[in-house]
């Protein structure tokens, strides 16, 4: 492993697990960062811990953020139902400013660790309509990172936001993860997974995951709840 550190945002889902494996394959020393933000699918945090251990992250840190206090999303407000069919436009599962805050927290930790590389598993193909998963957003945040930090202003760092999945289909992501030895059975993607990590099989995230494994012609290891 290189002594060059990198921060990898790790949700515990399929995409972020693949991103962690990609960052490690590039010889980087990986620090995994997850968030306890009031999400209803908290099983993903246990999944993130499993993935971080399996892929030998140097450290796995969980930071708390109160997105539930903001509300406005089916993922943080239990009074809003998780849709069971695709929605036009930006869906109610969008969490206001989530990736903006996540990247800002990752950037702060990166500055302390003297890391210049930040990895996030955003995807512009199967991205569910989220505005903070687009290339334009990532490019804008990268400019902010270099303009708004001491390390950037003093010229001690040039921050780069890496999005290795940005142009891949879900099937391509799965194939890449398998090539790198990712055990997708450790991951949880469902928006309303049980505490044990069993998926509903109905939400948009489950649909994209299931279709991805089917298209990749790889067995789906997801544990679905009994009907």
Q: What are the salient characteristics of this protein?
A:
227 residues; Rossmann fold; 7 helices; 5 strands
- CATH homologous superfamily classification: HUPs
Q: Helical element count?
A: 7
Q: How are strands sequenced across the largest beta sheet?
A: 3-2-1-4-5
| Major β-sheet profile | 5 strands, parallel
The coarse silhouette is: globular
Unreliable spans are none
Strand content: 5-15%
CATH hierarchy: architecture: 3-Layer(aba) Sandwich
- The CATH class is identified as Alpha Beta
**End-to-end CA span:** 45 Å
Order of helices and strands: EHEHEHEHHEHH
- CATH topology category name: Rossmann fold
The domain count comes to 1
Instruction: Report the strand count.
Output: 5
Mean pLDDT: 94
Rg: 17 Å
Structural class: alpha/beta
Share in helix: 25-40%
Verbal overview:
The chain has one domain: 3-Layer(aba) Sandwich (Rossmann fold), CATH 3.40.50. Helices cover 35% and strands 11% of the residues. It has seven helices and five strands. The chain has helices at residues 14-25, 43-54, 98-113, 135-147, 150-153, 170-179, 204-216; strands at 5-9, 29-36, 59-64, 117-119, 160-162. The protein is globular, with a radius of gyration of 17 Å.
Produce a short descriptive summary.
The protein has 227 residues and is an alpha/beta fold. It has helices at 14-25, 43-54, 98-113, 135-147, 150-153, 170-179, 204-216; strands spanning 5-9, 29-36, 59-64, 117-119, 160-162.
